[in-house]
Amino acid sequence: MSENRKIKVLVCKPGLDGHDRGAKVIARALRDAGMEVIYTGIHQTPDDVVNTIIQEDPDAVMLSILSGAHNALCPMIMEKLKDNGIDDVLVAVGGIIPDEDKPILEKHGLMGFQGPGTELKEIVEFVKTNLKR
Amino acid sequence: MTEIDEHKTLKPKKGERQESFRNLSDIEIKRLYTPEDIKDLNYEMDLGEPGKFPFTRGAYRNMYRGRLWTMRQFAGFGTAAQTNERYKFLLEHGQTGLSVAFSLHTIYGYEADNEYALGEVGKEGVSIDTLEDMETLFSSIDLSKISTSMTINGPAAILLAMYIVTAEKQGHSPDLLRGTIQNDILKEYIAQKSWIFPPEESMRLIVDTIEYCAKNVPQWYTISISGYHIREAGSTAVQELAFTLADGFAYVEAAMERGLNVDDFAPRLSFFFNAHNNFFEEICKYRAARRIWAKRMKNKYNAKKIESLRLRFHTQTAGVSLSAQEPENNIARVTMQGLAAVLGGTQSLHTNSFDEALCLPTEKAVKIALRTQQIIAQESGAADTVDPLAGSYYVESLTNRMEDEAEAYFEKIAELGGVIPAIKANFFQKEIANASYKYQQEIEKSERIIVGVNDFQLREPCSTPILKIDDQVSKDQIDLLNKIRKNRNNEMVKEKLEKLKIAAQGSENLMPYIIDTIREYASIGEIVSILKEVFGTYDEDSIF
User: Fold this and answer.
1) Which of A8, A83, B33, B434 has minimal CB crowding within 10 Å?
2) pLDDT (tens digit per residue) in B328-351
3) Quick check: is A39 in a domain?
4) ipTM for the predicted complex
5) Between chains, do A42 and B193 touch, taking CB under 8 Å as contact?
6) Does A21 touch chain B if contact means CB atoms closer than 8 Å?
């Protein structure tokens, strides 16, 4: 990706979980790091998420889930992206993701798994170094 | 191998270990407080005896010498049958009240097989669809003997109706029921985000419950006006205090506009605050809250009954303060937070379990959390005298300061036209987002130290056992729901829902209509759908 184009990130809250403090803080940290950030707000179904990805064409998607619904929602989002021929977007999930769920999510192509206490600069660095385009 | 990071020193100044000392509300703390700081304090007017106006020293004369606070651990997960087992476990271990956590689909009024419920059923709380689930939830628990707090907001009127009908089936009349519905929709728009209908229609439902309970369920607390979620979303202690009380006054005004007498409903309003890390700041917050409420209720709303002026509150220790790193450290945090709540005069307390940054609490972690309260109550001596910190130059000065800062916020909210216009202008949402970002940056820069997170880290893998809710819960819940749909009288359900819809289009109190639908085993999802047809829904701007 060219040096002078801003990295475009979609920060997303899938499912019914209203815990948006982390998502908002991360959205702002990424913006402060010079990225273009779109925040979807809460209550996004997998279809909503995928439609926004198709419309906005972000370089990275940061999913934030603290409700325990990640195993149901994340693989579904990845399947729908595949169905739409999208395979060059970094998709990360953070929140409360137990260790034993990580391999399953990784198998679906998800990365990240940043939990409570992760430093913001670590997340910024993660986005910069894991882009797929 | 375990390695310890080098201790990060903060910028020192003039023989002090950091440049300035600031609490979580960004109030600068002085080196020393002296009589000079409280020279204008008038004992009778500003503090008063405990149990007397303005209640700064406590809601009741005897406080914990008379009766200890209610130890009320919030619990709910999986199916109603699973949660019923946890409740019986807690009651057997000395818990004195129940507190129900509901599944997200219940909170939003969706049936378990709705698209939005995917992956959520039973994960964050107990899954409830119909009266049958509620009957299972309280199976073998006598509803005339316990008090139950239900953390439910958007569909609070519906869950209250279910509780009333469940008790009725146990043979108890509504006037015997004791408990609380959270029913605080304003803080949902401000912070927690689980609203269903637009603000004005939500306020109508809340006033309906207030009016109904004043006549029929007189021992019920109709709103738990909550700062907890505002704080968890990232506000400061001062913002928590100010926004929560502003919400409280908005409910009082809404009920008075309906024509209710303030003294007929105000005694059944209660509060719910957070207990965060800064010990004295939290204690002062509770003391200031009691004084602000008493003064306004008396002077602005002309309340006469002592119960209308007396602010009572539940406290939960700060979930957001729990670290996923070295989770056992959370036991120490929760102990101090719980002690602050007790020294601040709480009426009931939930102490968080140490593993809650990782999962819903395991049985062992819940037991330690409950034991923490019992140790504070029985061993620390903190419950032996009323308001032991009164008169401290620091505590009184900070209590005053928090009251002043809250008053400044009330003025800003009034300038915006009140709480609902301020919500629509994103005022609270922006204030909270700014405060939470600032807090996070302070941690990043090590201007605030969280032990084990940004200082004194032990780099070792976490091995805390966690509680997992398996996906079988969702299948079981959907099976139960389908069984109900097949076995109930669907003609009657339809008829009662239609009657509710017609009533919603008018201005009648909806509680009796909701109770009628519940008796026929209409689901929460069906009731909410019918009401959405009349009330509509609400979307917020996604600001960050």
Assistant:
1) A83
2) 999 999 999 999 999 999 999 999
3) yes
4) 0.85
5) yes
6) yes
